[in-house]
Amino acid sequence: MMQTSQTTPNTDQTINLNGEWIGHYRGHYDQVVRITQQGDEVVAVKITGDEHVPGGAVTFRANIKTGVGEGQVAEKEFRNACFVPGKLEVVNAERIVFVWENCGKVEFRKDD
Q1: How many Cα atoms within 13 Å fall on the side-chain side of residue 46?
Q2: Percent helix, strand, coil in the chain (nearest 5)?
Q3: Distance between start and end Cα atoms, the chain
Q4: Which value, to the nearest 10 degrees, does the dihedral of the CA atoms of residues 50, 53, 57, 62 take?
Q5: Do residues 39 and 15 lie in contact, with contact meaning Cβ atoms separated by under 8 Å?
Q6: What is the pLDDT along the chain (112 residues), one digit of tens a residue?
């Protein structure tokens, strides 16, 4: 019996996520983040920010192999900022999705 193949995120070990990415934050606008990758770990820092998480602040960090990560959330004016569990899905070298647990998701595309 043939099993249908399900997408298993983050299995491509050769992917390099370093660089600038554009993400559409629902309820805000497109924002630019800079992703820095060291080994399997990535950190995304906002270049442009919003009234909740400003430019220069970490928006998410995750392990690209497991997808396990955490994303930053805050009230307006960056009050009560904290990290909540999240999941990174590497769709391909040009597209990733980060899901904040119970807070929604943002799709990012590579900024050329």
Answers
A1: 24
A2: 5, 55, 40
A3: 43
A4: -110
A5: no
A6: 444 334 445 554 578 999 999 998 877 689 999 999 999 999 999 999 899 999 999 999 999 999 999 999 999 999 999 999 999 999 999 999 999 998 899 999 998 7
In the chain the domains, ranked by start, together with CATH numbers, are 19-110 (2.40.128)
**Local structure of 108: helix, strand or coil:** strand
Say which DSSP state 99 is in: E
Tell me the CA distances in angstroms from 75 to 16, 48, 50, 61, 78, one per residue in order. Answer: 32, 17, 11, 19, 6
Residue pair 64/88 in contact by the 8 Å Cβ criterion = yes
- Please name the residue that has the structure tokens 């270049």: 47
pLDDT score for 87:
98
